[in-house]
Design a protein that fits this description.
Chain lengths: 215, 249, 237
């Protein structure tokens, strides 16, 4: 157990790195997608809808292959396995997060929008000062859930050769043939790494339900 | 109730507790066959808790429930017998939304009593007719008015041919107009000699239909008397205050 | 133009792979759904000795990456003299993951039935089994069908993980074509299109049948109850 853990520990940094970097990409790209999808004009809405749907309709592993073997293996562009994984998972989760954002924005009562219009606040100001702060707390629990899902999906990066926990477990198994022990420890490691996100989700849930009860 | 007649339902020192907090303290009560007892009192008085304890939805924390002199709760068998003999009508109807009115009513005769389906259907139809809703037999509860739903729920409980009917604020989820049709149905039942224990906020019903009224506050029985006496001439100041308040005087 | 010609050459092989993909999806569901329902019933049981093992299994199934579960079955179980073909290993691993995820969906469905209905059943003298069979499950099934279909779509995509243990499914076919022709772009894009075509038609069908119920493949649900119960919404694997 101790030796397994010390070998797999070599992959922990890579797993966390891929997860956090991809999540950052997703968190940033997800917002414009969400805002575009809420636009009143279908010409603005359509591209966002297509991007979100297509990103989610293809398995993550296929995206990683496309990005690593096809896009990232040209003379002009050479991507590392880490970069390919971050871009691929970041894009997929941007699509997922945009849906969470959208739900959060929808959760802000229509009266708030009307009030910003009555005050003649510019649209950007309305978003930044009034709508987003209210939407944020609603969005935190699903975001944390997506972060856990992303952590687990990051295992796929091992298939294109990123040296994460799963990759280390496969390598170790090919030497010591102890798949039972190695993958048990690997699974437990992923579960343990997900706990902080779960704690965040639970905390936000609690704040939220208190607020709903108070309202 | 004459001294010789054995009570149909007896509550003996019943206490009810939720999470170690006692909400009903030491209530004893006899209900004779054919008697209608109304439980009244401010909200939080423990009326509903007491009613739910009678058929063990919330088992009493202390005390005994006896049905025709047999203590309930010792075994699965007496509990089953109790549930068969005691019908319950809920404030929120609790009809099964995926079943039609008729299916709701025939469910327990078929599956609890094990009647053949045809016989269960016949019995259910009879009870629906009884509450005046034969023509709604094939409607889902969602398509019925609140008053109709509650009458279907009454028919559902009656289809077990219970000896006692418990009503937990049957009209308080309804508009007055719809509540009136439910009260009319209950009045008919009382007239036919059904034994009933009714938790209610309808003072007219308590006064006109009940034989006896029990006033509860803070988990205690404060006062009980025949309906006429308690409603017109309450003895305890707590009862007087309550009745004055609800009558808006 | 040349890409279209290439695709024409690939297609028969891909369709064979698609058959394997669909069979793997079907077998995983056939094993996983009944197990998921059983786990959900166990999770809602009153007895702690029944509830806790079920919760533990579900937490493991949802907490560990499906790929790790797959490797565990493929590389680990032979140590216990349990050796199967790679297809069977993939079906077992994905079936277990399916059970864990659908158990949570079923549990939510069961818990969505108002307490009053259960009380009404008790008041009518129905047994626990009758209550489940006649009242709880028929209502719960309506609640769980849209999320279950959403999960099926994710599972269909998740079968691509079986590539990692050389099951000859859709992605494996694409990858082996690519390693012969070195045309990574056209081989993988075609595979992506086949995956997308089926996922998107399933989503469209689902939306036509349950408008408004489901935002998309992955349905963002209102905040759940935290830790174990926060609604899981993304890729099953």
């Amino acid at each position: 157990m101790g030796t397994i853990l010390s070998t797999l520990a070599d992959g922990v940094a890579q797993t966390i790195g891929i997860t956090l970097a991809a999540f950052a990409v997703a968190a940033v790209l997800g917002l414009p997608l969400a805002v575009l999808r809420r636009s009143g004009h279908w010409l603005v809405r359509l591209p966002a809808v297509v991007v979100v749907e297509v990103l989610r309709a293809v398995p993550p592993i296929v995206w990683l292959f496309l990005i690593y073997f096809s896009l990232g293996s040209t003379d002009n562009l050479q991507l590392t396995t880490f970069q390919a994984a971050v871009i691929g998972l970041g894009l997929i989760y941007a699509a997922h997060l945009s849906e969470a954002y959208r739900a959060g924005l929808d959760a802000v009562p229509a009266g708030q929008w009307e009030a910003t219009r009555a005050l003649a606040l510019p649209r950007t100001q309305a978003y930044v000062r009034v709508i987003l702060p209210q939407a944020l707390i609603v969005v935190i629990p699903p975001m944390a859930t997506f972060a856990i899902a992303l952590l687990k999906d990051s295992a796929i990066a091992s298939v294109i050769g990123a040296t994460d926990i799963t990759f280390q477990a496969v390598q170790l198994t090919q030497q010591d043939l102890n798949g039972l022990g190695n993958f048990t420890v690997a699974g437990l490691l992923y579960i343990a790494l997900g706990i902080p996100f779960a704690v965040v989700a639970r905390g936000a849930d609690r704040v939220l339900s208190r607020r709903l009860v108070g309202a | 109730m004459t001294p010789e007649s054995k009570p149909l339902l007896t509550l003996d020192g019943v206490c009810v507790a939720y999470r170690h907090q006692e909400v009903v303290h030491d209530v004893s009560l006899d209900v004779a066959a054919g008697e209608v007892v109304a439980l009244i009192g401010p909200s939080g008085a423990g009326k509903s808790s007491l009613l739910r304890a009678i058929n063990f939805l919330e088992p009493p924390s202390k005390g005994r429930i006896l049905l025709e002199g047999v203590e309930v709760g010792g075994s699965r068998r007496t509990l089953d017998a109790l549930r068969r003999d005691v019908g319950m009508v809920f404030q929120s109807f609790n009809l099964f939304p995926h079943l039609t009115a008729l299916q709701n009513v025939m469910l327990a005769p078929e599956h609890t009593l094990g009647l053949p389906r045809e016989q269960a259907r016949e019995r259910a139809m009879r009870q629906l007719t009884h509450v005046g809703l034969a023509e709604r037999a094939d409607a889902k509860p969602g398509k019925c008015s609140g008053g109709q739903q509650q009458r279907i729920a009454i028919a559902r409980a009656l289809a077990m041919e219970p000896k006692v009917m418990l009503f937990d604020e049957p009209t308080s989820a309804l508009d007055p107009e719809l509540g009136a049709e439910v009260l009319a149905t209950m009045r008919t039942l009382a007239g036919e000699g059904m034994t009933m224990v009714v938790v209610t906020h309808e003072m007219h019903f308590a006064e006109d239909v009940a034989d006896r009224v029990v006033f509860m506050a803070d988990g205690h029985v404060v006062e009980e008397n025949s309906a006429g006496k308690l409603m017109r001439d309450p003895q305890h100041p707590r009862t007087q205050r309550f009745l004055n308040a609800v009558r808006g005087r | 133009m040349s890409t279209l010609n290439e695709w024409q050459d690939y297609l028969p092989d891909y369709l064979d792979g698609l058959k394997v993909t669909l069979r793997l999806t079907g077998v995983s569901l056939a094993g996983g759904l009944p197990l998921g329902l059983l786990l959900a019933l166990a999770m809602t049981a009153r007895r702690r000795t029944v509830r806790w093992p079920a919760i533990l299994l579900v937490e493991i199934g949802r907490g560990a990456p499906a790929l790790v579960v797959l490797y565990f079955v493929y590389y680990g179980l032979p140590q216990l003299d349990l050796t199967w073909s790679s297809f069977v290993c993939a079906a077992i691993a994905l079936g277990f993951t399916t059970a864990a995820y659908t158990a949570d969906i079923f549990r939510a469905g069961i818990n969505s039935i108002p307490v009053g209905h259960r009380e009404a059943c008790q008041a009518l003298g129905l047994s626990h089994g009758q209550e489940l069979r006649l009242v709880v499950l028929p209502q719960a099934i309506r609640v769980v069908i849209p999320p279950l279909i959403g999960f099926c779509i994710l599972l269909y995509q998740g079968t691509s993980l079986a590539f990692a243990v050389s099951v000859p499914e859709l992605l494996s076919r694409a990858y082996s074509q690519a390693s012969i022709t070195y045309q990574f772009t056209s081989t993988l894009v075609l595979a992506g299109l086949v995956y997308a075509a089926i996922s998107l038609s399933a989503v469209a069908l689902m939306r036509a049948r349950w408008p408004g119920r489901t935002a998309s493949v992955t349905d963002v649900e209102p905040p759940g109850e935290g830790l174990a119960r926060t609604t899981e919404v993304t890729h099953a694997p």
